[in-house]
Amino acid sequence: MKIKPIHFLSRGYMISIFLVLLTAVVSIVIRSPFLTLSLTISDIFILLALAWDFSSGTTNYINFGISFFFGVGVFATGYFYYSFHLPVPLLFIMSTVFGILAGLVFTIPTVRVRGVFFTLLSLLLPLIGTSFILAFWTVLGMPTIGYFDIVQISKSPEVSLIYVSVLILVVLTLIYVVNSTHFGLVLKGIGDDESALVTQGVNSFPYKVVIFSVSMGIAGLAGAIYAMTTTFAGVDAFGLEFLLYPMVIAILGGKGKILGAIPAGYLIILMSQYLQQYVGDLTLMLFAALAIFLFLFLPKGISGWYK
Amino acid sequence: MIYGLLFGFVYALISAGFTLVFGVSKILNLSYGALYMTTAYLIYYFITFLRFPLTGAIVVSILLTVVIGIAIFYFVLRFTKNANIFMVTMLLFALLLQYLYSYLFGGEVGFIIPGPFPSASFSLAEVSVSYSLFLSAVISIAIVAFAWIWIEKSSFGRKVRATSEDVEVAELLGIDTRKVMMLILVISILFISIAAVLVVPSQEVTPDMWINPFVIAFAVSIIGGLGKFKWVIPSAMIVSFSEVASQYLIHYDVSEIVAFVIVIVFIILFPNGLGGRKNED
Questions:
Q1: Which terminal residue of chain B, N or C, has fewer Cβ atoms less than 10 Å from its own Cβ?
Q2: Which 3 state secondary structure label does DSSP give B30?
């Protein structure tokens, strides 16, 4: 099989860029704080969905740990802001780096074992995240259980959204390029039939380590954006809704089809933000039900539905 | 030491069902922890709103939990045969239940449900132990031991072991594996439900209470080897002793982290668990 050349002008990629830029423009024109906040939150979840789909969607190693690494990003942001007063760009970098490091620490021992164990262990991570913070919050120099008054990306929410949009475009391009190279091909091979790949003489281990660490770095970056949007880093960052929504988005957008996550993300999160105003806490339950429906009846997402 | 032993027995009961179901069906029932929570909420509901007597509430709640657990399991199994999708969907059901209870009963405040045993304490080897913990441990170990003997000795137990070795061969030998699976599922839900009755009175009923038993069941099952029932008790002991020790030596909240670290260490040392064979995948 020949490696396909990178087409930066491919339709899906152009539409995705257009959508991300459109949201930034719309928020500047309309200037509704609620809409801008909702779009920023959508972007955060889109980043998480990209991270999830990039690693789990292509390799078929289901990773439930994404909300843990998101939390790592959130707390890394809080820690470096509180202890060193780093500026915003460095906070982005540090949380990404810590996401990658945590990803490495987790992935290297666990990804050797086959799928089920990996999935189980990754699910344990967000579940123990809270107790980690409860046990060590004094060591981490937290004023209380969590950091508050974290610096905002920018004083103006619209400008923040522009920064976030740029970050999404960077991540999107990275994933797009990787998927078009030999590396992406190996990842797809792992997803299709890992034993066949190993028989071909490919050592899948380093590929898995790299892909999961980078994905977890992206999740950490999303955590940094979240911490600087809400200006708070608390244990709710390990909440499983940061796993639920990205999975719904990734599945709706089509598993392994990275670009589908962008329209699906705006759709799902904007819908959920507006629903939250009317039905409150019922929203999460409705989306859990939606997720079950999607996984059971439309596992290939909207794109699979059309065909 | 005493606490480690007593908690170890209870942990064995919590984990037994999880590992049994995996042994027979090779499926991870990720809604397992949520069923534990379901029992707790049902008991709370029956006692507070319907004024049931305690025993009645416990019996009805356990039965309802079994029905709910089986309904979820077979609903998902009806629509997918893909192991990954199955696993994700079961976890989503757990989340669905969590959000449902949080919506119905409120998420912030925990409830207390009464326990079946007196809360008074007595002295055991110079350590003060409450009757409820002691009796819970005794009942747990009795149930697990009974299940173990039953699986090792009875003819049904042989069918269970055959099914967990190889489903196709078991079917060729004339074993109705679907029936075996169904029964094992019922037993596993009974286990976790009874564990909830025993353990929950010493905790609060909150929408995220399923996490702790879930972590324990994972840790114990992975250390012992998924689906290896006879390793449940020793690995439950390993988990509970190290948890109790870490709570004394380090900090009360690190116990879950310790369980996790032990699991990682065991995964590296024994990729198939203590009961695993070397040539297994």
A1: C
A2: coil
